[in-house]
Design a protein that fits this description.
This protein is α/β, with parallel strands linked by helices. Helices cover 37% and strands 16% of the residues. The protein is built from eleven helices and nine strands. Strand 4 and strand 5 form a beta hairpin. The two termini are 13 Å apart. It binds ligand BJW.
Length: 243
């Protein structure tokens, strides 16, 4: 695979690499993306039924079952070479920030140190009544309820119309505004505010690089666009940069 020599040079010299990942980085592990026309979640389900609080209030069992099924799937799959290449980049560069929209925990399982989770995590639930986070519950109960109070538990994720958690969003915005290289990997860049981060980086003077088999609305910002699968492109980029 031939990769731009200038990109390898900028990566080798990077002071701070900031990476934003989306569902595409986990696709090669066997986790469906959201918007793929054949296999994406939104080709089979309506986002307003499964990824809004109104959908949850209407049918908590349907939504809880969908997240329980995703928890089982994610527990059964493994991080792929794309996740692992990011761990290697973290090890090689003086400063590295990983921001993910994914809730699957695969970056952590690959060994990434402190990924910033913008959309929450599959591995936590929280009480619908007061947002208190719960890490242990009866997985056979649907919808699950708080063991102490009996109130409904919802996934600790960010649904449409909900604000992103303040501290992770602030850390992500600060990193995007203070990096010299920004990689946008496996995201359709359609969902805000995460999709605004490459714009923040670009406006602050960073070189934006897109790794995605398909063009996206942020492609025009990218100085380099690598078309292909993250699990192939990232290891190849590592080898080309540090032969
Ligand atoms: C590969 C590959 C391979 C495939 N290798 N690549 C501004 C403008 C317009 C709208 C808005 C706006 N600001 C806010 C909004 C509204 C809304 C929004 O953005 N809507 C748009 C869709 C129009 N945003 C929100 O509602 C957000 N909240 C908010 O703004 O709150 C404001 C507020 C403030 C104060 C009070 C109250 C409110 C919240 C958004 C939450 C998104 N939630 C979800 C579900 C999370 C939990 C879960 O996972 O179940 O997050 S939706 C879903 O989309 C999920 C994802 O994280 C997110 C992004 O998807 P992603 O990761 O990009 O996946 P895909 O499938 O779209 O793309 C995959 C890509 O991979 C593709 O490009 C492929 O080509 C590529 N690919 N194989 C590399 N091997």
């Amino acid at each position: 695979m031939s990769l731009p020599a200038e990109l390898c040079q900028r990566l080798r010299a990077a002071r701070h690499l900031c990476v934003l990942t989306g569902a595409g980085i986990s696709a090669e592990s066997g986790v469906p993306t959201f918007r793929d026309h054949q296999t994406g979640f939104w080709s089979r389900y309506r986002p307003e039924d499964l990824a809004t609080v109104d959908g949850f209030r209407r049918d908590p069992k349907l939504v809880s079952d969908w997240y329980a099924e995703r928890r089982r799937l994610c527990a059964a799959v493994e991080p792929n070479p794309g996740h692992r290449a990011l761990v290697e980049l973290e090890r090689r560069l003086p400063r590295f920030t990983l921001i993910t929209q994914n809730i699957d925990g695969l970056h952590q399982r690959a060994g990434s140190r402190a990924p910033i989770e913008l959309h929450g995590s599959l591995l936590r639930l929280r009480r619908l009544s007061d947002d208190r986070v719960v890490t242990a519950w009866d997985e056979t109960e649907s919808p699950p309820r708080c063991p102490e109070t009996g109130v409904l538990l919802r996934p600790d994720v960010v649904w449409f119309g909900e604000p992103l958690p303040a501290a992770p969003m602030a850390a992500a915005t600060a990193a995007a505004g203070d990096c010299d290289l920004f990689f946008c990997i496996g995201t359709s860049a359609l969902v805000y505010p995460a999709a605004g981060l490459p714009l923040t980086a670009s406006a602050a003077g960073a070189t934006v690089v897109e790794l995605n088999p398909e063009p996206t609305p942020i492609t025009h910002l990218a100085a380099f666009t690598l078309r292909g699968k993250a699990g192939e492109l990232l290891p190849a980029l590592l080898t080309a940069t540090w032969p």
